[in-house]
């Protein structure tokens, strides 16, 4: 089953669609529009801010993600707070972090978030704080 992807580029553009060839170890991948059809767009990891696996493309503009960690849950990975250069801050856990790749995988702290998981590009991060 293909997963819905939303790619945010550092220049501000946003692309929504599906991919079948993403790898954090490759320089680029192809994104086929979520609206169906068309020609796949080549996305370079060097141009990205982050890639979001989402529940749906619409999301909820009024949703405000929780800015804390549920003390009753012990999610996989290491708790962290990521602040991007554009000012966006996300709370969650770093689940896969290999220094030789340009980014790391991140799970949002709030289960009600539209984002399922995120691939964060290191060059887009202003600050990464580890949380207790």
Describe the structure.
- The structure is a single chain.
- This protein has strands at 4-9, 14-18, 28-33, 41-44, 48-54, 78-84, 89-97, 103-108, 115-121, 125-130.
- The protein is an all-beta fold and 132 residues long.
- It has one domain: SH3 type barrels (Roll).
- Strands 4-3-2-1-5-9-8-7-6-10 form a ten-stranded antiparallel beta sheet, with no helix packed on it.
- Strand 6 and strand 7 form a beta hairpin.
- It is globular.
- It starts with a strand and ends with a strand.
Helices and strands, in N-to-C order?
Answer: EEEEEEEEEE
Summed up, the helix count is: 0
Radius of gyration: 15 Å
Percent of sequence in beta strands:
over 45%
Number of strands: 10
Q: What structural category arises from helix and sheet content?
A: mainly beta
Question: Approximately how much helix is present in the residues?
Answer: under 10%
| Main sheet specs | 10 strands, antiparallel
Q: At CATH's second level, what is the architecture?
A: Roll
What attributes does this structure have?
mainly beta; SH3 type barrels; 10-stranded antiparallel β-sheet
Give the topology, please.
Layout: E1 4-9, E2 14-18, E3 28-33, E4 41-44, E5 48-54, E6 78-84, E7 89-97, E8 103-108, E9 115-121, E10 125-130
Antiparallel strand pairs: 1-2, 1-5, 2-3, 3-4, 5-9, 6-7, 6-10, 7-8, 8-9
Brief write-up:
With 132 residues, the protein is an all-beta fold. It has no helices and ten strands.
């Amino acid at each position: 089953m293909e997963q819905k992807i939303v790619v945010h580029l550092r220049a501000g553009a946003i692309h929504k669609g599906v991919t079948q060839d993403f790898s954090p170890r490759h320089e680029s991948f192809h994104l086929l529009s979520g609206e169906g059809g068309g020609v796949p767009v080549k996305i370079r990891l060097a141009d990205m801010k982050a890639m979001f696996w989402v529940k749906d493309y619409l999301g909820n503009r009024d949703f405000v993600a929780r800015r804390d960690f549920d003390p009753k849950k012990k999610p996989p990975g290491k708790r962290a707070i990521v602040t991007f250069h554009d000012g966006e801050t996300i709370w969650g856990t770093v689940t896969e972090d290999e220094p030789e790749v340009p980014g790391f995988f991140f799970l949002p702290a709030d289960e009600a978030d539209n984002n399922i998981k995120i691939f964060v590009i290191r060059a887009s991060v202003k600050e990464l704080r580890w949380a207790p």
